[in-house]
Amino acid sequence: MGVSLDFSVVLERWPMFLDGAWLTIRLALASTVLGFALGTLCAIGRRGRSAWLSRLCGVYVEAIRNTPFLVQIFVVYFGLSSLGLSLPAVTVAVIALTINVGAYTAEIMRAGFDSIHKGQLEAGECLGLSRAQIYWHVVLRPAMERVYPALTSQFVLLMLASSVVSQISAEELTAVANFVQSDTYRAFETYIVVALLYIALSLLMRAGFWGLGLVLFPRRRRLGTPL
Question: What's the pTM value of the predicted model, to 2 decimals?
Answer without folding.
Answer: 0.89
